[in-house]
């Protein structure tokens, strides 16, 4: 299956500036949904599929919309991995890695440690009365949690967060910046070393972690496969929960009435999580390549065509979500696309849901009294392949 690097016959060609997409992709997505729901975008080198129903349709056909895209940035960054595999190999790798991330395991194995880490981080900042909740709390929390779940016993939260940033930059390096590739390569080598040490330890002493699960899988998994898939998990496992945390906290701090309602009904933190992930999707798009000729969104695409499923756009589709550009905790439930779908539904979704909606948000609003956005603080959202707040500067009444 050779990749086609040009527009399919009849496909509209739309020029989009990558810098503008990073600043705010949503106006461009709205225009694409309205006028060109499948458009070739030269700066991205693929067709963008932007309507909810079309994306859901494509996700249900992995045998047509293949994850094995030639020249994939993710493959270049981390090597062969389950996100860029189709079944049966995808199923084999996922079955080996997934058990420690299931809801019961999250609750029974990891939740207590997640909560202790959150309290430790808040102990460190509570007396200051001000902080950047992304850099000082959310990122170190989710990085430490991820190291635990993965079984990276000797990796610090700071190292895991640095590795994640380097690989996410590589995965979205459509501008082909050589410095970005260099940082990504340095991170992947460090992860490979850490995983090799962890795998050797887990072989002697199983610990319930992802690496341990893969080492002891019934269907054998090679060390290289474990290393590459841990790289993938480190990428998404930091940025997704960190960015959903930041989006939800920022949205509530800007909407005092919504915050009061949530604080009066703790069960609604789950709704905050789902609406935050829909409203500003932490992962904005992922690539697919057609294995055969196929018609979608009114256009016939030849085999080999490159397509991006723009789930951030699907999550703002007005035909599915009324007032889609608004953050609305009262909207009727419709499944969002933030964690993907089909066989590649995000493996870490339950980990992220628990650490953010059951632990991180309730704790910051209960422990940091009078929590509010710092005066004059500008919380900038950044990114389009991956998107979230770059900072969240807040103040509160220090004890």
Description:
This protein is of the alpha+beta class. The protein has one domain: Orthogonal Bundle (Cytochrome p450). Helix content is 50%, strand content 9%. Strand 6 (294-296) and strand 7 (299-301) form a beta hairpin. The model has no long low-confidence stretch (mean pLDDT 92).
Under CATH, the homologous superfamily reads: Cytochrome P450
Find the count of extended strands (DSSP E, 2+ residues): 12
- The tally of structural domains comes to 1
* First and last CA, distance: 63 Å
CATH first level: Mainly Alpha
Strand order, largest beta sheet: 1-2-8-5-3
Strand percent estimate: 5-15%
| CATH fold description | Cytochrome p450
Structural class: alpha+beta
Name the poorly predicted regions.
Answer: none
Summarize, please.
By secondary structure, the protein is an alpha+beta fold. Helices cover 50% and strands 9% of the residues.
Write the SSE topology:
Blueprint lengths: L17 H6 L2 H10 L2 E4 L4 E4 L2 H8 L5 E2 L6 H6 L10 H9 L5 H23 L4 E3 L1 H17 L6 H15 L6 H27 L5 H6 L7 H31 L2 H9 L4 H11 L6 E5 L3 E3 L2 E3 L4 E4 L1 H4 L34 H19 L4 E2 L7 E2 L5 E2 L3 E3 L4
Parallel strand pairs: 2-8
Antiparallel strand pairs: 1-2, 3-5, 4-12, 5-8, 6-7, 9-12, 10-11
